[in-house]
Design brief:
The chain is mostly helical. It has helices at residues 22-29, 46-51, 59-69, 76-92, 119-144, and strands at 4-5, 10-13, 16-19. Helices cover 44% and strands 6% of the residues. Strands 1-2-3 form a three-stranded antiparallel sheet.
């Protein structure tokens, strides 16, 4: 975090500043840069929401549900949706909270349309905001261990 420069979204590498752009996310992760905006849902809804009625879920709950559904031909779509949800929660939009919220779960209803969205720009925005929040926490923790002394010291 000591190398992150939030103004301009740069990472300091030796004496140079390297900008972290949306194109970098597109190239590194293979995500599309053009298309529709990604809509985030405040809670699980749509087909994925139907798989987890009336409770908060964790990544381990999704994996357990996938194991239950694997092997049944009728559940190929639902297993694919759950795999997409795991990708959202772990790879693209990871959270520090134990339960999953604010993910684009409704977009998983129609798996064929996923390529129509601007995933790279949303992952880039999420990454930048996460780095900025982390830098704030990093600075607060490092400042707790710093003692500021004002005035002069007289040795008698």
């Amino acid at each position: 975090m000591s190398r992150w420069v939030p103004t301009g979204e740069f990472i300091q590498v030796r004496q140079q500043l390297v900008k972290l752009s949306c194109l970098d996310v597109t190239i590194c992760l293979g995500l599309s840069a053009g298309g529709n905006d990604v809509v985030f849902d405040s809670e699980l809804c749509g087909e994925v929401g139907l798989l987890f009625p009336l409770r908060e879920i964790k990544v381990s709950d999704i994996i357990e549900r996938m194991r239950d559904l694997v092997g049944e031909e009728d559940n190929v779509q639902n297993v694919s949706r759950l795999y997409g949800l795991v990708c959202f929660a772990v790879l693209f939009f990871p959270r520090t909270s134990r339960t999953l919220t604010n993910l684009p779960s409704r977009l998983l209803d129609n798996l064929d349309t996923l390529r129509q969205y601007r995933w790279a720009s949303h992952v880039h925005s999420f990454l930048i905001s996460s780095l900025n929040r982390s830098l704030t926490v990093y600075r607060e923790k490092s400042n707790k261990h710093t003692i500021f002394v004002s005035g002069s010291v007289v040795i008698v």
